Amino acid sequence: MRARLWQAAFVLACLIQLYGLYSPHQAGPPTGIPNDDKVAHLLLFGSVAYLGLRVGVQARLLLTLLIANAVVSEVVQHFLLRDRSGDPFDSLADLVGVAVGAWLGFRAIRRPGSDQKISGHDMMDS
Fold it and tell me: What is the chain's alpha carbon radius of gyration, rounded to the nearest angstrom?
């Protein structure tokens, strides 16, 4: 049952991330808080990285896709979404989120007593 909750959280995080990045209009109302979008980018990418590792998505695949999405999403926003604009600092926040989420995810699956399999999560495996 617990595994299903982690899986549901991962799917939900992926859907929220995709909506936030590829919606034709800015997701959410302006808050007036400086750099709130950077925090949102960090949290979106970090949560997908963390939850993906928790549910057993292969690290190399997950992190490669997230890194590619960090760059591609800003290019798509800049060139293909009329009411959006690409921002390289958003991509930077995305990459920091991936790093933080991966760090937390690897710590979670490697902690003593964890029922997660670590093989396949080792970035050095071929």
Answer: 15
Residue 99 falls within a domain, yes or no? yes
Q: Give me the number of domains the chain comprises.
A: 1
In a domain, residue 123? The reply is no
Span 44-102, pLDDT tens digits: 999 999 999 999 999 999 999 999 999 999 999 999 999 999 999 999 999 999 999 99
Interhelix angle 88-110/59-79, nearest 10 degrees: 160
| Chain length of the chain | 126
3-state helix, strand, coil in the chain (%, to 5): 65, 0, 35
93-102 pLDDT, tens digit each:
999 999 999 9
